[in-house]
Write a sequence for this structure.
């Protein structure tokens, strides 16, 4: 198991950073405690719960002092962050914007922690409040370019950096870098780690038969992660077969799922497996991606009984060869055909 002498301190820092600070956004009102006030009567007067009031002000007890200032949150629910949650999913499920949640809870980071409590304004309340002016650097980039949102994960028994990275569809090196870990460090059960979540907006294609032209390192490796299955369609013939990405960092090292899929591949390449490249469309989770493939089996294999001894290569824009870490011009030319470029 992975160990680090810093994990308890890092977990504490994470809780402090990702925890809720007093609400100071445009949604909040401020009152001053007067003699006779209690949390109960203040909450009742403003039609909120005591829990919401305490959460908005980071109160750990029911004690308040005369003259103390309290923030009054909007009409809202209290949501407890679960495993797998990220802000955009929480916002979408509650019909509010990410910015609404950020503002209401005065979040200083997009990172959230399992067990963290968030105030989620009602849809009506959120609609009443104008959105803040975006910062210049946020005007458009999140709309049409890939972006990353960090989430938090609590280590359980059996977890390793490799299993966590595979389960979340990211490279091992990225997980290690995000957590400032080396391959010689260990994880502890209960440790809180950072897991980057990559959002890849859909892009326009040249037509219905073409695929999206997306960079391997920036986008495709997250859309088509290790252990993902996909349908591959030969661009010229329209014949298709099922595959699984089993390994590969610089491009997709891929294997046919079944013997029937291997037979389909062989027929497309004229009856024999070959290093010659062909434009293909890779369909994974509803996305059609422009790619290029050679069919020659080589090196390591993970799928048995598929009549294919090894794996084959699928390349995408910007992907590299294994032997010299260089772009393969033949593959890139075929990819452009599949993209209609």
């Amino acid at each position: 198991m992975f160990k680090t002498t810093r994990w308890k301190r890092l977990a504490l820092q994470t809780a402090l950073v990702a925890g809720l600070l007093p609400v100071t956004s445009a949604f909040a009102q401020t009152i001053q405690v007067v003699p006779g006030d209690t949390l109960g009567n203040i909450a009742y007067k403003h039609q909120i719960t005591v829990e919401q009031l305490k959460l908005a002000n980071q109160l750990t007890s029911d004690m308040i002092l005369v003259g103390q200032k309290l923030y009054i949150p909007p009409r809202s629910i209290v949501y407890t962050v679960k495993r797998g949650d990220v802000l955009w999913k929480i916002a979408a499920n509650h019909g509010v914007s990410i910015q609404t949640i950020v503002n209401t809870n005065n979040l200083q980071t997009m990172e959230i922690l399992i067990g963290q409590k968030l105030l989620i304004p009602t849809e009506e309340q959120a609609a009443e409040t104008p959105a803040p002016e975006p910062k210049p650097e946020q005007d458009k980039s999140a709309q049409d370019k890939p972006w990353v949102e960090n989430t938090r994960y609590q280590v359980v028994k059996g977890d390793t950096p490799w299993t966590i990275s595979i389960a979340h569809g990211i490279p091992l090196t990225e997980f290690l870098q995000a957590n400032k870990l080396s391959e010689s460090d260990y994880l502890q059960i209960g440790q809180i780690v950072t897991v980057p979540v990559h959002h890849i907006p859909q892009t326009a294609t040249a037509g219905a038969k073409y695929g999206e032209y997306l960079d391997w390192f920036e986008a495709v490796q997250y859309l088509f992660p290790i252990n993902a299955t996909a349908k591959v369609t030969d661009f010229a013939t329209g014949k298709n077969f099922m595959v699984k990405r089993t390994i590969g960092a610089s491009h997709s090292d891929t294997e046919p799922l079944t013997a029937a899929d291997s037979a389909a591949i062989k027929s497309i390449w004229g009856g024999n497996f070959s290093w010659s490249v062909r434009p293909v469309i890779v369909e994974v989770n509803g996305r059609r991606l422009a790619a290029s493939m050679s069919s020659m089996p080589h090196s390591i294999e993970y799928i048995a009984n598929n009549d294919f001894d090894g794996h084959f290569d699928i390349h995408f824009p910007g992907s590299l060869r294994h032997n010299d870490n260089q772009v393969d011009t033949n593959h890139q030319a075929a990819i452009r055909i599949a993209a209609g470029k």
User: Anything to note?
Assistant: Residues 1-27, 124-142 have pLDDT under 50 and may be disordered.
